[in-house]
User: Which sequence fits this backbone?
C-alpha cells in the first residue's frame, strides 16, 4: 500500500466482507455461524476505528489537518458502535428480525461514512502526512 487511502480503503473492504458474512448467516437463521461471523466483524471494526482514532486522526490533527472532518468521523464511529452493540444484543438473543433491521441501518451509515473518508479525509491525510506514511502504516498495523 502506497497511500493512506489505499491502506484504509482495503481495510474498509475487509470489514464489509465480514459484515456481509454475518448478515447472510443471520438472514438464513444460521445462528451459530452468525454469532461467530458477527464477532469477527465487530473485532475488525473495533480495530479499524482504533487505527483511525489512536494513530491517523491524532497524526492528522498534530500536522495541522482539518479538525471538523475528524470530529464528524469520530461522531459517526460512536453512532456505528452503538448500532454494533445493539446488533450484538440481537445476535445474543437470537433475534434475527431485530438484527436485520439494525444491519440495514448500519450498512447505510457505513457506506456514507466510508465514502466521506475515502473521498475526502484520506486524500487530505495523504497530502498532509506524506512524509510519515511508513511510520503511520507500521503503527496502524501494530494495533490488535
Assistant:
Amino acid at each position: 500500500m502506497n497511500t493512506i487511502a489505499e491502506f484504509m480503503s482495503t481495510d474498509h473492504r475487509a470489514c464489509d466482507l465480514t459484515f456481509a458474512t454475518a448478515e447472510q448467516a443471520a438472514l438464513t437463521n444460521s445462528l451459530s455461524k452468525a454469532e461467530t461471523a458477527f464477532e469477527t466483524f465487530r473485532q475488525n471494526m473495533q480495530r479499524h476505528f482504533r487505527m483511525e482514532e489512536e494513530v491517523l486522526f491524532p497524526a492528522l490533527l498534530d500536522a495541522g489537518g482539518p479538525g471538523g472532518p475528524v470530529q464528524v468521523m469520530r461522531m459517526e464511529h460512536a453512532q456505528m458502535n452503538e448500532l454494533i452493540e445493539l446488533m450484538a444484543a440481537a445476535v445474543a438473543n437470537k433475534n434475527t428480525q431485530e438484527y436485520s433491521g439494525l444491519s440495514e441501518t448500519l450498512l447505510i451509515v457505513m457506506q456514507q461514512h466510508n465514502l466521506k473518508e475515502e473521498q475526502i479525509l484520506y486524500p487530505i491525510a495523504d497530502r498532509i502526512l506524506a512524509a510519515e506514511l511508513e511510520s503511520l502504516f507500521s503503527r496502524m498495523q501494530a494495533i490488535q
About this structure: Residues 42 and 61 are 27 Å apart (CA to CA). Helices lie at 4-27, 31-62, 67-92, 96-128, 133-141. The chain has one domain: 4-141. The longest helix spans residues 96-128.
